[in-house]
């Protein structure tokens, strides 16, 4: 069985289709979900991960240079995000935390929209309905409730779209995540709970808050779960496809624990060297998700110098576009804070806006005023 309700699953029993050395495993029954993944598709997954890592590096540099107030790096988690993100249909709806910029890339979110909040130019980044992805949730775990509610509504409407909630290991200790699983199981909602266990909830190691594998929690709610090697893009793609298919067929919710590693800081305001053993980081670097797929591509003659250069050039162009979008982003107007608070005009808000407009005008009219 791929979805389980047993006790802890040892690491060697993670669903893994691609070993760290780039060789394939026997598939454990999951290769059937990758029947369409040919050489071109493998190259596409590789390029996606290279681009997303380069975007992440550029955004981190922008923060260090004072162009962004904050940035949540995803370094090391590219396979979990790209593999699952590329499994989704356009009409599926994503509810994420602040770290799923790789999933946002898959959904077609623009570079300026990725940065808008972190530059402080807007309270949210993009129109959720344009890309079928809610703007990132900073309140830990709250998006699991949003995803479950959306999935319940989808089921009531008779549609076969699926909601996907992305969250980290730390969120599983929040009440919201557990309440979401109660409702999802009770109503058999078509939702996939995708937990990226990156080993650290800021400075708290996962072993302190989870005495058993995180995936073991879901069966207690009546939700089947699976643990997958989150640094294996093929395995991440396969298990997500399986969970989505189950949800579309009326099988209800699923829980995926993608075991990966946060190779960078929690955010650019964090210093992981204060709490993390550097040897641990070195161990996980040997399982780097991009290097792993690169080894497979080289073995199959798909990563020649021309393609490697092409992927790098694509990533560098993306980084340049990201930087340009950031430094040329228009500053918000003084009254823009009142826009998009409500979906339709609101009289009380309009009165507040007018009062603030008059206040600014009074400052401008005062001696030496510049407002």
Account of the 3D structure:
Residues 48-317 form the Dehydrogenase E1 component domain. The protein has helices at residues 39-64, 78-85, 101-107, 111-119, 128-131, 142-157, 175-186, 206-209, 233-248, 278-285, 289-299, 305-327, 347-365, and strands spanning 93-95, 163-168, 191-197, 200-201, 204-205, 225-229, 254-259. The model is unreliable at 1-10 (pLDDT under 50). It has 13 helices and seven strands. The protein has two domains: 11-327, 3-Layer(aba) Sandwich (Rossmann fold), CATH 3.40.50; 336-365. It is an alpha/beta fold and 371 residues long. It is 44% helix and 8% strand. The N and C termini lie far apart (66 Å).
Question: How are the elements arranged and paired?
Answer:
Layout: H1 39-64, H2 78-85, E1 93-95, H3 101-107, H4 111-119, H5 128-131, H6 142-157, E2 163-168, H7 175-186, E3 191-197, E4 200-201, E5 204-205, H8 206-209, E6 225-229, H9 233-248, E7 254-259, H10 278-285, H11 289-299, H12 305-327, H13 347-365
Parallel strand pairs: 1-2, 2-3, 3-7, 6-7
Antiparallel strand pairs: 4-5
Helix pairs in contact: 1-2, 1-3, 1-11, 1-12, 2-3, 2-9, 4-12, 6-7
The main sheet comes to:
5 strands, parallel
Radius of gyration: 22 Å
Q: Helix coverage percent of residues?
A: 40-55%
Number of strands: 7
Q: Return the string of H and E elements.
A: HHEHHHHEHEEEHEHEHHHH
Envelope shape = globular
CATH class of the largest domain: Alpha Beta
Distance between termini? 66 Å
What fraction of residues sit in β-strands? 5-15%
Low-confidence residue ranges: 1-10
The number of helical segments is 13
Class based on secondary structure composition and strand pairing: alpha/beta
Overall mean pLDDT score? Answer: 94
Number of domains: 2
CATH topology of the largest domain: Rossmann fold
CATH superfamily of the largest domain: Thiamin diphosphate (ThDP)-binding fold, Pyr/PP domains
CATH architecture call of the largest domain: 3-Layer(aba) Sandwich
Strand order of the largest sheet: 1-2-3-7-6
